[in-house]
């Protein structure tokens, strides 16, 4: 039997009203219309309705789907046997046993230079990157935490060209020890491309296109 659904979701105006004006989440709309969340997300993309991050969605209090529900493991205690199993299957990665451990502790605790905190340099770099993560090209929200990264990993290298903006997610990826040199080369090349007025090749085609459009608009505005 084919599952029936309310055809409201095929109405662009209706969907915009529910998602933009009423600020319902895609999950909420999906539940009300008897469809999956993926179906709603596809319609949003089809009608070019701008999505919003989880930070913008009201997921707190009574609007949270888990509100008032008791956790499945509340009040349950692990047996000694289960505790031992968990202990046996979790490797000790503390201290020098961690694959990302840096034996040069002096470098780890070295103070940051003055240029690193200089707001003028930070703003200049932000404008050069046009508010995009240098590694991925994804747009970053200036009001949401992101990272100001040392390309070569040396905190004592206070050259402004050694400082770039990256998202918190990709900052963790960059600091993977076995991939450090690989990402370092990409960041250096991406910064070079931006300084030459080009969109970095390592960015996705979508991000390169968006960046080029943004820069064209900015160039047109500067003429006035």
3D architecture notes:
The protein is mainly alpha-helical and 224 residues long. It folds into two domains: 7-52, no CATH class; 112-222, no CATH class. It is 42% helix and 4% strand. The protein has ten helices and two strands, in the order αααααααββααα. It has helices at residues 12-21, 26-32, 37-46, 80-88, 105-108, 114-117, 119-128, 168-174, 180-195, 205-222, and strands at 147-150, 163-166. The longest helix is centred in the last third of the chain and has 18 residues, at 205-222.
End-to-end gap: 62 Å
Secondary-structure element string: HHHHHHHEEHHH
The total of beta strands comes to 2
Spatial arrangement of strands, main beta sheet: 1-2
Which structural class do the helices and strands define? Answer: mainly alpha
Nearest-angstrom radius of gyration?
A: 24 Å
Helix content: 40-55%
Mean of pLDDT: 85
Number of helices: 10
Apparent shape: flat
> Strand portion, in percent?
under 5%
Low-confidence stretches: none
């Amino acid at each position: 039997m084919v599952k029936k659904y309310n055809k409201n979701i095929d109405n662009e105006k209706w969907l915009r009203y529910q998602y933009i004006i009423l600020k319902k989440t895609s999950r909420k709309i999906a539940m009300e219309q008897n469809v999956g969340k993926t179906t709603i997300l596809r319609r949003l993309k089809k009608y070019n309705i701008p999505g919003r991050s989880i930070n913008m969605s009201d997921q707190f209090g009574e609007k949270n789907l888990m509100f008032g529900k008791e956790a499945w493991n509340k009040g349950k205690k692990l047996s000694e046997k289960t505790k031992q199993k968990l202990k046996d299957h979790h490797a000790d990665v503390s201290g020098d046993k961690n694959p990302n451990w840096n034996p040069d502790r002096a470098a780890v605790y070295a103070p940051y230079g003055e240029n690193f905190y200089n707001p003028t340099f930070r703003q200049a770099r932000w404008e050069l990157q046009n508010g995009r993560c240098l590694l991925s090209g994804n747009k970053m929200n200036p009001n949401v935490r992101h990272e100001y990264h040392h390309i070569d990993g040396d905190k004592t290298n206070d050259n402004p060209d050694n400082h770039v903006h990256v998202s918190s997610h990709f900052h963790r990826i960059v600091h993977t020890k076995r991939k450090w040199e690989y990402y370092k080369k990409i960041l250096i090349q991406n910064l070079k491309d931006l300084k030459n007025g080009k969109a970095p090749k390592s960015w996705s085609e979508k991000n390169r296109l968006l960046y080029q459009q943004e820069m064209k608009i900015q160039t047109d505005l500067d003429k006035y």
